[in-house]
């Protein structure tokens, strides 16, 4: 399970699309407005764990590379261009490099990394069918556009690998020297662009022929709002409301300048953090429990 990930076999993915979307709105939305180290740690760890659970060990390398460079670039830029802060390490041409600027850069980088990694699992849970189901009636163009955007990167990656394999079978897989390799890469990229443009035209003609977006057009789906969907949705709303209330009361507030000041960790902060952690780990708990039940039933058979 850890090697390949559970992917679309996720138990949480089997819930109603509105339940899945509500979870990601709460998880990503709260993450974007929380710079408290406790909340950043919670969203960073949970986003990593869930992406690995869904996509397998192969996603660890991608997450590590992205996280490292994002952290280095954002922290470095903030340190070099922001000179506020009382704790000065040293001076560069009269501009102070401060501890507070470094902490803010690291915090902002962790927040951005967490949001991006959340979208790794979002691409698995929120399939194109779910996005079209949610936005198809109210905003059909938006629903189709979003489904195509989230599908675009993996689709291009698969097509590029197919093109490269085809070129290799023709004996053109590797050019001689740097110029030859760049020329071959340009040829493969040109084929990919041509293929993608042709495919997009065919998709547009097909959707138009089927009357997509016309008033009164209906669509088939198998999604039904069941009792378990209602229970999970209510639980997420309650937990989200507790976290939002804690944020409104300033329990996630952090002051970076002129000195780094973290608010007192009182009872309300603990309750807010506990609700946030439980909210973030809900799909992980659901998927792991689903995998355990499936293994037990397979052993009994």
Describe this structure in words.
The chain has 301 residues and is mainly alpha-helical. It contains 9 helices and 4 strands. It folds into 2 domains: 7-132 and 225-300, no CATH class; 140-209, no CATH class. Helix content is 70%, strand content 4%. The radius of gyration is 24 Å and the shape is globular. The two termini are 20 Å apart.
What is the gyration radius calculated from CA atoms?
A: 24 Å
Q: N-to-C SSE series? A: HHHEEHHHHHEEH
The total beta strand count reads: 4
User: Main sheet: which strands, in order across?
Assistant: 1-2
The N- to C-terminal Cα distance equals 20 Å
How many domains is the backbone divided into?
2
Q: Main β-sheet: number of strands, strand sense, barrel status?
A: 2 strands, antiparallel
Mean pLDDT over all positions: 79
Uncertain parts = none
Strand content: under 5%
Structural class: mainly alpha
- The number of helical runs is 9
What are the salient characteristics of this protein?
2 domains; Energy-coupling factor transport system permease protein; 301 residues; single chain; two-stranded antiparallel ribbon; mainly alpha; two-stranded antiparallel sheet; membrane
List the helices and strands and how they pair.
Layout: H1 17-31, H2 37-55, H3 58-81, E1 88-92, E2 95-98, H4 99-125, H5 128-135, H6 140-169, H7 177-209, H8 227-248, E3 254-255, E4 261-262, H9 267-300
Antiparallel strand pairs: 1-2, 3-4
Helix pairs in contact: 1-4, 1-8, 2-3, 2-4, 2-9, 3-4, 5-6, 6-7, 8-9
């Amino acid at each position: 399970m850890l090697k390949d990930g559970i992917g679309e076999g996720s138990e949480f993915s089997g819930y109603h699309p509105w339940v899945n979307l509500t979870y990601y709105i709460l998880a990503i939305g709260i993450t974007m407005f929380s710079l408290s180290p406790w909340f950043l740690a919670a969203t960073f760890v949970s986003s990593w764990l869930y992406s690995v659970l869904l996509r397998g060990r192969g996603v660890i390398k991608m997450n590590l590379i992205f996280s490292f460079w994002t952290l280095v670039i954002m922290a470095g830029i903030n340190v070099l261009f922001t000179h506020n802060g009382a704790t000065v390490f040293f001076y560069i041409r009269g501009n102070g490099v401060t501890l507070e600027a470094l902490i803010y850069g690291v915090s902002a980088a962790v927040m951005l990394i967490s949001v991006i990694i959340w979208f790794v699992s979002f691409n698995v849970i929120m399939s194109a069918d779910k996005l079209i189901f949610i936005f198809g009636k109210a905003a059909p163009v938006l629903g189709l556009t979003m489904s195509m955007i989230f599908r675009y990167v993996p689709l291009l990656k698969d097509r590029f690998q197919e093109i490269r394999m085809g070129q290799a079978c023709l004996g053109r897989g590797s050019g001689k020297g740097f110029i030859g390799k760049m020329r071959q890469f340009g040829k493969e990229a040109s084929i990919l662009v041509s293929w993608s443009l042709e495919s997009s035209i065919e998709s547009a003609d097909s959707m138009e022929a089927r009357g997509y977006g016309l008033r009164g057009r209906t669509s088939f789906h198998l999604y039904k709002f069941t009792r378990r969907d209602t229970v999970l949705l209510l639980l997420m709303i309650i937990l989200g409301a507790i976290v939002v209330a804690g944020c409104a009361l300033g329990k996630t507030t952090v002051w970076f300048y002129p000195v780094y000041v973290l608010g007192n960790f009182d009872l309300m902060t603990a309750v807010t953090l506990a609700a946030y952690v439980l909210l973030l780990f809900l799909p992980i708990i659901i998927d792991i429990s689903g995998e355990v039940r499936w293994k037990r039933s397979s052993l009994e058979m």
